[in-house]
Amino acid sequence: MGERLRDKVAIVTGGGRGIGRGLALLLAGEGARVVVNDVGAAVDGSGVSATPADEVVQEIVALGGAAVANHNSVTTTRGAESIIATALNSFGRLDIVMTPAGILRDRMIFNMTEEEWDAVIAVHLRGTFNMVSQASRVFKGQGSGCFVTFTSTTGLVGNSGQANYGAAKAGIVGLTRTMALELGPLGIRSNCVCPSAGTRMTQSVPNKAVQIREQQGIKGAMDASDYVNASPDDIAPFAVWLATDAAKNVSGQVFYVRGGLVSLMNPEDTAKVLHKEGRWEVDEIATAFPHTIGLELFNPAPARE
Ligand SMILES: NC(=O)c1ccc[n+]([C@@H]2O[C@H](COP(=O)([O-])OP(=O)(O)OC[C@H]3O[C@@H](n4cnc5c(N)ncnc54)[C@H](O)[C@@H]3O)[C@@H](O)[C@H]2O)c1
Hints:
The protein is built from 11 helices and 8 strands. The chain has helices at 18-29, 51-62, 77-91, 114-142, 153-157, 163-183, 200-203, 207-215, 224-227, 236-242, 282-288, and strands at 9-13, 33-37, 67-70, 96-99, 145-150, 188-195, 254-258, 261-265. Helix 4 (114-142) links the parallel strand 4 (96-99) and strand 5 (145-150). It has one domain: Rossmann fold, CATH 3.40.50.720. The protein is α/β, with parallel strands linked by helices. It is globular and about 70 Å long. The structure holds nicotinamide-adenine-dinucleotide. Nicotinamide-adenine-dinucleotide (NAD) binds next to helix 1, helix 4 and helix 7.
């Protein structure tokens, strides 16, 4: 057991399975007292079970750590309030909030229902907002705190069949960068991790979907072989390090983590520019574009012949 987070109290949403489980165990391994939040839902968000969160708490306690379970959903303000109250009532303070709770409802956008859209936005984007807005009040009062949010390559570069998820995950990046600006002056740090690992979530994307994408020449966010063999527990060391005092100057960043790889993902940089004094004519753009910013422009999914 390490000591880097001794005296700290952490919350991990979705801490009962996959990447969240690894985060909860390592946070406790570094001395933090941990609230393991998880509704115990299926990958599509249906159903509830206390077992995943309870089992992780038992694991932490068996290893000599301190943890309590919370089974509420992050999708509502009341749920988020109860998760934070569990930390304050059980351990008397709150220092770290990590928000990997998540679900998938994949569907091509022309078939996606409003309900499928809302369900994914509710867990990922609104769930992250609910946790951050409530916890930031506690952090503001004490002048310290650390958030680690979770995005996806789907949110950074897109992935066919995941319009709801991609929108939510891109939203989390914008939210986190904005949190860093608003909360940084108050002593509160915010960073976003873009993980890749073999979990039930990644295994739930059917081979058929991957094959159809390949047949259609649609480039996925990444090749499944890149991540299915990576362990979800590989994400925890970097995410937990972000919560330590050693990372006190790290905020407003997005990091991609898979296996032993950690990459700093830059915000959208300007790659090329087209500029004139005053307003363009459409004709002028039609002439200038192909030879300037249109040169060698990559189309991830060209129209079929
Ligand atoms: N596994 C990957 O390769 C990968 C890639 C990119 C992003 N991510 C992101 O990492 C995070 C963790 O993913 P994972 O692969 O460990 O998934 P997982 O399905 O193994 O774990 C997600 C957990 O979140 C819980 N959860 C779902 N809805 C909830 C709610 N409303 N409130 C509280 N808990 C809820 C589930 O019960 C589950 O235990 C997610 O945000 C996911 O989008 C994962």
